[in-house]
């Protein structure tokens, strides 16, 4: 048990994130108790009795849960003694993505309500294995950043920094802070972290609470290098260059059997090279075959084990599959074009291992309760996380960087129109553009009922470029009917 007076909650949360904590965090103030489940440094579930933090309340407020459906869910909770989530999932009252976003909002509200507590207690219970709850699509560090910026005074930040308030800090090379977005600290603080100014002087010169909050979080994450004296600008640049990883590219020419520098094109290939190519082709056929039949195979078939396989057999089968079929390995042996299919195959292999290794989940699966809701939740969570990262890059104009993330989101959950539209725009704006593919994804987005003025207008621009004038005019008219001032 610890004191929130001695360890402020923002510091505790950043520490749990930094240390990839898994287990239970219990917060208590007076008679109010909240329990948060963490996995890999992020909260994934909460138990709270506050009315505003109830799942049904959040879904009703967003319009995702009608009054009659809410009454059915609350009746099920009372009759069965189950949680709101269990009732909503079993009755199928809410679309999976809406339910996931409501869970994320529930977590955000629960943490936001207590993040400014100046007193109270906390208890940590580390656990090696936690539930299969999906990761939540909200940024914990962004929440902490906002709380520190709005509730801590500048002198409190300096006190929290301790001796680091007197140091000369530089940012760890390659570190990224997506939780800052495009805020003032991103524009003004990060470029100044060159080791030329003492922390207290730098924060005083910048003079805003957000820069102080951002600096404190960077320090708590271990993202800063602190020195006792100032470094001149040139020296600071040289230090960063020396600390950056060095990549050496070696180009080898395979010697011919006679010792020459290059092998003539017509010369027969070495037996080892022929064998490698044959193995790669066989692996390609296997991955594509697995991908094609993925949804029709049982979890035992996915792992290649019998129905009576015990935990050790399942573990060995999973490790064998990981060595052979991991997407990163396929890229290394020249099968990068299979990465999307390989990601889906390996995700199902990982799910098979998780379900069949857990006695309770395995029993449910064997009773034909095939754990589909958990699998869908995992896919939606991963898709939402990929979409949000891709959307940040898209807004910043990094269309090629956004493309892989948005393609991942669409692959995992193709029924979400916003994912389809975002992917379409990235395809159209990257260099070189793929406008035909972009048009196809826009059409899928609109067929799914996704209608937002800006995306409709963007779709009309792509259609016009491709000569689909009638459809482009329809989309533009619809966009302006929704928002007369819409811009692409």
Attribute tags:
488 residues; five-stranded antiparallel beta sheet; three-stranded antiparallel beta sheet; 23 helices
Give an overview of the whole structure.
With 488 residues, this protein is an alpha+beta fold. It folds into 4 domains: 2-137, no CATH class; 142-243, no CATH class; 271-370, DnaJ domain (Helix Hairpins), CATH 1.10.287; 377-482, Serine Threonine Protein Phosphatase 5, Tetratricopeptide repeat. 58% of the residues lie in helices and 9% in strands. It has 23 helices and 8 strands. It has helices at 9-18, 55-61, 67-80, 84-91, 96-114, 140-151, 154-161, 184-189, 199-206, 209-220, 233-243, 271-292, 299-303, 311-325, 327-332, 339-357, 359-366, 372-395, 399-412, 417-429, 435-447, 453-465, 469-482, and strands at 2-3, 23-29, 32-39, 42-47, 121-126, 168-171, 194-198, 224-227. It has a 5-stranded antiparallel beta sheet, with helices on one face. β3 (32-39) and β4 (42-47) form a beta hairpin. α6 (140-151) crosses α10 and α7 (154-161) packs parallel to α10. The model is unreliable at 238-267 (pLDDT under 50).
């Amino acid at each position: 048990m610890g004191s929130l007076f001695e360890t402020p909650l923002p510091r505790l949360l950043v520490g749990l994130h930094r240390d990839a904590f898994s287990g239970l965090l219990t917060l208590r103030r007076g008679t109010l108790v909240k329990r948060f489940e963490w996995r890999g440094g992020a909260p994934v579930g909460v138990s709270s009795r506050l009315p505003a933090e109830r799942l049904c309340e959040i879904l009703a407020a967003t319009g995702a849960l009608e009054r009659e459906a809410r009454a059915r869910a609350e009746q099920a909770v009372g009759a069965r003694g189950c949680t709101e989530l269990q009732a909503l999932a079993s009755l199928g009252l809410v679309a999976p993505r809406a339910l996931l976003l409501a869970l994320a909002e529930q977590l955000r509200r629960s943490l936001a309500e207590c993040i400014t507590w100046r007193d109270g207690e906390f208890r940590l219970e580390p656990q090696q294995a936690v539930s299969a709850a999906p990761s939540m699509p909200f940024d914990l560090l962004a929440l902490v950043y906002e709380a520190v910026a709005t509730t801590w005074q500048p002198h409190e930040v300096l006190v929290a920094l301790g001796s680091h308030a007197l140091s000369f800090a530089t940012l760890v090379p390659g570190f990224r802070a997506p939780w800052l977005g495009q805020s003032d600290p991103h524009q003004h603080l990060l470029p100044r972290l060159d080791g030329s100014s003492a922390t207290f002087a730098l924060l005083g010169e910048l003079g805003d609470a957000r820069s102080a909050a951002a600096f404190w979080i960077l320090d708590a994450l271990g993202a800063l290098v602190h020195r006792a004296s100032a470094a001149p600008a040139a020296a600071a640049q040289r230090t960063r260059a020396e600390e950056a990883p060095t990549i050496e590219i070696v180009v080898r020419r395979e010697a011919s059997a006679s010792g020459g520098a290059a092998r003539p094109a017509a010369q027969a290939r070495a037996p080892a090279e022929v064998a490698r190519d044959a193995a790669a082709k066989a692996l390609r056929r296997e991955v594509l075959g697995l991908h094609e039949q993925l949804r029709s195979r049982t979890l035992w078939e996915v792992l290649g084990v019998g129905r009576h396989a015990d935990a050790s057999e399942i573990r060995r089968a999973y490790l064998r599959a990981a060595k052979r079929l991991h997407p990163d390995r396929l890229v290394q042996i020249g099968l990068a074009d299979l990465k999307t299919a390989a990601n889906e195959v390996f995700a199902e292999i990982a799910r098979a291992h998780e379900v069949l290794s857990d006695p309770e989940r395995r029993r449910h699966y064997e009773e034909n309760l095939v754990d589909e809701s958990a699998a869908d939740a995992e896919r939606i969570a991963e898709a939402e996380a990929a979409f949000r990262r891709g959307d940040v890059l898209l807004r910043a104009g990094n269309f090629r960087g956004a493309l892989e993330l948005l393609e991942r989101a669409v692959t995992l959950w193709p029924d979400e129109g916003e994912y389809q539209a975002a992917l379409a725009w990235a395809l159209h704006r990257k260099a070189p553009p793929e406008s035909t593919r972009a048009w196809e994804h826009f059409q899928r987005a609109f067929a799914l009922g996704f209608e937002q003025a800006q995306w409709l207008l963007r779709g009309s621009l792509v259609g016009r470029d491709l000569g689909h004038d009638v459809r482009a005019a329809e989309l533009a008219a619809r966009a302006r009917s929704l928002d007369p001032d819409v811009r692409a």
